Amino acid sequence: MTSRSPAKNPAMFKWLVTLMATGHFALVVITGRVRWEHVAAALLLVVLAWAGPGPRRFLRGAFPLWLTGMLLDSQGLWLGVRGTIHTGDLWELERSLFPAPDGMIWPEWWSHHPNTPLDLLCGFAYAAYLYEVFLVALWFFFKKDDHRFEALCWAFLVVNAIGVVIYLVYPAAPPWYVLQYGPGPANLAALPSPAGTARFDAFFGIQYFANFYSRNPNVFGAMPSLHAAYPLMMVLVLWYKGIAWRVGTSLFALLVAFSAVYLTHHYILDVLAGCVAAVVAYVVVRAVFARRNSGTLEAASVSLPSGGNTRA
Description:
Layout: H1 10-30, H2 36-50, H3 53-73, H4 88-97, H5 106-112, H6 116-142, H7 146-169, H8 175-181, H9 197-204, H10 208-214, H11 226-237, H12 243-262, H13 268-303
């Protein structure tokens, strides 16, 4: 008799999801962080788990996305164990490696030379970068390409896990923080800031980025840049689609990378580190899925009846 994994056992999967959703909701209540999004996410998770085979198929693939949200939302609970926060030293390293005119670094130089077209273009990129991941994931799901759907969702979790671990081991202030507070010892009371994206909000008279960044639990999580990581991962995931997709996704990834620097959210070093994290996550998940699929094929071949004729 062989045991079945939770993902292959509907009853086990339903109860596992219900237990995890309830446990996380209890955690946010106990820690005083509960918001309406936590209620909605917990309810959605349980409803999908019990609604039937179709919704469960979606949830099996997308479950890592919920785990990612839980991971990022819980960052504030772990800040007490992070390492020494880097401020001025990272600024000086950036200056030595990627000097800008007048002895500045590029995020600083752009903060003195903004213009409305770039504000709008980069603001759009910063607003859309996350939705690109979700749209591609949904596209795979509705195409019934479950292999790529699940692999993308797990790669998204892995790249975020890499980012969170580095945030704890090497916490680093973003350029806007040094411009506002200086390169001295970290000000732990510093509030999150929309930085250059505030100009996008001001142009349209909205509070999109102000609201988005007000919920950031970790001001000192600039290295690596997950803004740069996500679009590069989409380049890798969609590379098989051909030249048009390669060019389109690559141009968007370059735009987001530039926007991270232009809007003073990240150093060029952060962007490069984010690119490395994306490649590592993609390669690791692809290797794991290839090994899993190889094992599944081997198991299937063993279970085939012997002695019969087969046709190609």
